[in-house]
Amino acid sequence: MNKLYIGNVSAEASEEDLESIFKQWKIQHSGPFLVKTGYAFVDCPDEKTAMRAIDVLSGKVELHGKVLEVEHSVPKRQRSCKLQIRNIPPHMQWEVLDGMLAQYGAVESCEQVNTDMETAVVNVRYATRDQARLAMEKLNGSMMENYALKVSYIPDETAAPEGPPSGGRRGFNARGPPRSGSPGLGARPKVQSDIPLRVLVPTQFVGAIIGKEGATIRNITKQTHSKIDIHRKENAGAAEKPITIHSTPEGCSNACRTIMDIMQKEAVDTKFTEEIPLKILAHNNFVGRLIGKEGRNLKKIEQDTGTKITISPLQDLTLYNPERTITVKGSIDACSRAEEEVMKKIRESYESDMAAMNLQSNLIPGLNLNALGLFPSGAPGMGPSMANVPPPGAHGGCSYGGQPESETVHLFIPALAVGAIIGKQGQHIKQLSHFAGASIKIAPAEGMDAKQRMVIIVGPPEAQFKAQCRIFGKLKEENFFGPKEEVKLEAHIKVPSFAAGRVIGKGGKTVNELQNLTCAEVVVPRDQTPDENDQVIVKISGHFFACQLAQRKIQEILAQVRRQQQQQQPKPPSGSQPPIPRRK
């Protein structure tokens, strides 16, 4: 990749002009400039020089009144699935970058390029040309932490006529060579688990785990090929501190075992007589599946490993702490085996959820899925979260003034499940409302024999997603649906009566497309009498992601209708007082 394309070249520019610029910036070239009308080509002696030329000149240097654009020269036949992304913030975590790239398709490899630049550079291969093209369009020029990303094609020697997609899940497949944990940090394992191991340790043992001048922790990371973060500054004065371990599942387990050994030795040396259990932190979304129906999964782990396992109550959850504490008691060997089994279940749940999330993320408009905090990247102490990095071009909800508009959804649950949703003394529904940032109320039963109850959820799109996700999950955890049965519920949303036709479409075309796309059943009952607000009901039935996708698609249709209404509003007559502009 030594050949450069120089674009936006003035018609007055000559080979000597370009030669002068390269000489001024001390950039070597290994051949003459081939100057065409509006653009030019030149060869550099090596890839490093070519990268420097792109970084120093592109978008920064002017020639005859035009700012030059410099990038790799890629023949059209080789503009396939490979991109180079430059100007990545130097301290950015790979988890954040991975999540951003996966929004646009299945990433087959992502390799860091070694350069002399302060910012990071990666070469990315997507599974299809369309995915690469979409990533190029969305990411090029987008801002990330005050850095404008620069994206260009790079030659793909293996480019072949594009066939049908391979069917791989949207997201990351095989990764490229090892990369650093973030630019400038230690090596990142090639097959690192997407979900780290998080444990709580007594504060008095943190010093022993770190060791003199960090020697002990460095030794652990080296031996186990892991990256370990000890969050000493979290919860000042707390009796316990969280530790996050990034590695392969085996590396995480080895590091955890070593930490337990160190704590045990320190306890003996300091005559600390209390039992030191292993405490694992896990996101609440995965705990139900770890426990299993009637606690079977957890009981099996206890029996197989000879340990006693307890899990902190739901009441301990807060908006800022979505993790539960899994306390494992037993010998170090037994606790170590239990950790492997517990984390195996957690990782399986995570992979299942992320596969579903990645499958739908490109389809759900108006909703920043990465900002929901439903997955571990948003957990405390786990480094920068995607919650701080909305996808380029993402907009929350259907608002026009910045904040997402509040929506009302009526979700119907089995009448017998009302107690589980409300919780003891209303604790669960209060906690859920606080966690989701939504108003959640259960409507009175419509009769003594009512088999369903209506849950009224009011809040913006992200709050709706969180609240409904937790309700679906709770019904599964509490065994209101069988172990192999998917939770399917009915949701009602109200739409203006004049917009119902847009939801249905000509000859039912739109509603049929909605059903095919979302796998949800969408019905707009005929002959409805609009309510006092001139609204009618749209019924949506299906599993969680199907319901969410259908809700968002319908809200998108309504947003289009509102925009068209605004555009069609008559303009004020000439001479009338112009509206006072809103202060930003």
Automatic annotation (TrEMBL):
Residues 174-189 have a biased composition (Low complexity). Keywords: mRNA transport, Repeat, RNA-binding, Translation regulation, Transport. The keyword Transport applies. Residues 2-75, 81-156 form the RRM domain. The keyword Iron-sulfur does not apply. InterPro entries: KH_dom, KH_dom_type_1, KH_dom_type_1_sf, Nucleotide-bd_a/b_plait_sf, RBD_domain_sf, RRM_dom. Residues 158-190, 561-584 are annotated as: Disordered. Residues 570-584 have a biased composition (Pro residues). Pfam families: KH_1, RRM_1. Belongs to the RRM IMP/VICKZ family. This is Insulin-like growth factor 2 mRNA-binding protein 3.
